[in-house]
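Lab notes, practical 5.
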Amino acid sequence: MKLQGRVAIVTGSSMGIGEAIARLYAREGARVVINSRRLERAQPVAEAIAREGGAAIAVQADVSRSAEVEYLVQQAVATWGRLDIMVNNAGTNAIAPSLELSEEAWRQVLDTNLTGVFLGCQAAARVMVPQRSGVIINISSIFGEVGVPKRAAYCASKHAVNGLTKVLGSEWAAYGIRVVAINPAYMRTAMDMSDMQVGNYTEEDIVLRTPLGRYGTLEEVARVALFLASDDASYVTASAINVDGGWVGYGGWQRLVQVVQEQSRVRD
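Output from the prediction step:
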C-alpha cells in the first residue's frame, strides 16, 4: 500500500494508460479522481474501483479549458481535503504530412497535450504549495525524445512537455513538489489502433523496431507511475523516464529484432 491515504487525480483515465494508472493507485491505497471529457465514460471506471474496495469519484472536465481543470482539482479537494498526486495523462494525436497539417489539428493537439498539461500542473501546484508536498507526473512519449515524419504536432507537444517538466521540477522543488515525466513507447491502446490506420505502420514494424521485441503493456507504464508517485522516488524530479523497451536508445536504421534473429541463426 505505497499510496495509503493519498489523493490522486488522473486525467484521461476512462481508458488506456490513464485507467491502468488509476486502478493501480487505488489498489495501493490512494483515493482517485477518474476524469474524462464525458462523465459517462469516467463513471464506469470509478464504479469498478469501488467494487474492488477502492475509493474513487468521476469528474467530467476538458483539460484544455482552465476553468474545467480548476473544477477538477476543486472536486478532489472538496471530497477528500487535499491533493497529493496529479497525473496529467489526457492526450490526442494528429498524423498528417506537415505540409498538409491543418491549423485546427495543430491547435487541438497542442491545446490538449501541452496547454492541458500546463494547466493541470498549475492547478495542482496551487493546492500542493501550501501543503509543502506533492507529486506531478506528466505522461509524455518517446516522441518527446525523437522525431518521426507526419507527427509534427504530436512531437512538438511532447518535446515541450518534457521541457516543461524540467522547468517546473526545478522551480517547485523548494515547495517539496516533485515534477516528473514518463515517456512510453508503443502500447496496444485505442489511440494506437487508430493511428495505425493512417500512420503507415503495422504491429510487426513496432515489434521488429523495439530492442525487447514486443509492445509495452499498460501495467508496465502504471508500475513506473506508481514508483514515481511513491516515496521510493523521493529524490527523482525534473526528469523523464523512458518506458520503451529500448526504443530511444537504439540508434540504428534496420529492423533490429529481425537482424538479431538472423545473426543468431547464422551462429547456430
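Observations recorded by the TA: The two ends are 47 Å apart (CA to CA). The longest strand covers residues 177-184.
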